[in-house]
Amino acid sequence: LGIDQAHANRYNGQGVSYAVIDSGTLCEDGLNEDGTPKLSQHKGLNFKEYNTIENSSPYINHFHGLATSYIAQEMAPSADCYYYADSSGDALVEHLQAIIDKNKTLPDNQKIRVVSMSFSLEGDREKALPLVKELEAQGVWVFSSKEQFWDKGFGYMEKKNPNGDVD
Question: Which residues, in sequence order, are bridge partners of residue 84?
């Protein structure tokens, strides 16, 4: 992907915010008394926010959420990551709405511009697709690596950046 060249040219994600919806990254003892994640539980990952939805346990210390986070952080170490932990994929609609709501509170230069989902929307497609379209209308690039479920059959490799540049 040319990441080494991008880093050599001082592109490091500074000023970019993105969201990841994936499995939890915390062990069961991973919260402080105030409910915030213990940073040591993230094994060196830096999240701007770590979000969970009620009844969606963040405590699955699963390799996929960790791997996705490490890859994103390696590619854009100075970007802000808003992480949405979901142990089963059952809260995708709630997470997408939370991202829309979060963007309403952020200044224009700090809005979430990319959403990466690692779950399919199968049963929630009718509820989720309008939210995805709302995000995309705001210039947010939304994609899933799980399967091709988008209205035109795009999977994550075929999905085009709203700005027209795949790179």
Answer: 21, 51
